[in-house]
Amino acid sequence: MRATWRTGFEIVLVLSACSTSSTTTGTIDDAGAEAAPPDLNACTHVSNAAGDRYGRALFNEDKTCATIDDCVLHGRAPSCVSTCGGTTPMSKTGARALDALVDDINAHECADFRDAGCPPAPRGCPPLQPPSELACVDGGCTTTPL
What we know:
Elements: H1 2-17, E1 27-28, E2 34-35, H2 40-60, E3 71-74, E4 88-91, H3 92-107, H4 109-115, E5 132-137, E6 140-145
Antiparallel strand pairs: 1-2, 3-4, 5-6
């Protein structure tokens, strides 16, 4: 069980380790006039709020298992949240619940993010963990080093 918590905690740290800075310029509106660039502070606020909601759910998602067949690696994140593209071991039930939350965040917080003209959230960071494989250890989905 300790490995399951450690893995979840490392993924949450990955969310905060990725850069959210970017360079933007104005855009052209439908009338051909240059529109003002988005308020990057507002963009960061919306992205951080979505990331906090996602990160809490990711850390607390169901990881229980009886066999390896109960486990999956979940790697789907909201579109307005900077992630490093990692995956988190969890139960299939937990993955379905997290997918529903990602859909909800995409429909609400990330829709506001897009509507405000915010630049895409950065994706991809250097790997922070060595290669591993999915496992069910002591009743919890986790990964073990290869």
